[in-house]
Design brief:
This protein is mostly helical and 192 residues long. The chain has six helices and no strands. Helix 1 crosses helix 4, helix 2 packs across helix 4 and helix 5 packs antiparallel against helix 6.
């Protein structure tokens, strides 16, 4: 059964993600005109070359999430989790505003499809992954600082759940590598 404490952690993570998205949307608006033109030009070039490109997040996701698993036993890892989630939200907001600025409404529609394909499943499971890591940090903190007994089984259980989510993210990244670019090419007519 979910306690209010667990709901608060998940709600907090969702708020961080939302703030990142809003920050990413407004970031493009507050850039200088020359910087904005360079960014939009580079994004436009990237979009035109998207055909035949593999969406490859495997190595970066596995390195970052592995590092997070290692530092999960230290409560100090929480600021890194929060920053990483904010960064992912920021990139989503920036993608939406950039493609919207370049291609108008069709760019916004394509950006949502792009985010759904490349980041949708990842972000869903990342939220749970980070939630489990925060809970591990909390239980370790209680065990070390307050000398509470009996958290060992819970910590082990949370690590197992974290590893399961880690494996799901890996399978998703492999799927994206082989099929992500093909799925995105289906919707590239929106940018024409």
């Amino acid at each position: 059964m979910w306690t209010s404490n667990k709901k608060q952690y998940l709600f907090f993570l969702l708020i961080v993600l939302f703030i990142g998205v809003v920050g990413g949307v407004f970031f493009l608006q507050y850039m200088g005109e020359s910087s904005k033109e360079i960014v939009l030009s580079n994004i436009n070039e990237w979009v035109m070359k998207i055909e035949g490109v593999h969406v490859n997040y495997i190595l970066s996701h596995m390195l970052i999430l592995s590092m997070f698993l290692v530092i999960a036993s230290f409560f100090i890892g929480m600021p890194l989790y929060i920053f990483y989630l904010f960064y992912n939200g920021f990139s989503i907001g920036f993608i939406v505003s950039s493609l919207g600025a370049i291609f108008g409404f069709k760019g916004i529609v394509y950006s949502f499809l792009y985010i759904l394909v490349t980041k949708g499943i990842y972000l869903f499971f990342l939220l749970f992954f980070l939630f489990f890591l925060i809970r591990i940090g909390e239980k370790v903190f209680l065990r070390v600082i307050r000398r509470e007994k009996g958290n060992g089984d819970i910590i082990h259980f949370l690590y197992k759940k974290s590893l399961l989510v880690f494996a799901i993210i890996f399978v998703n990244d492999v799927f994206l590598y082989f099929l992500g670019g093909k799925i995105l090419n289906i919707f590239s007519f929106l940018l024409g």
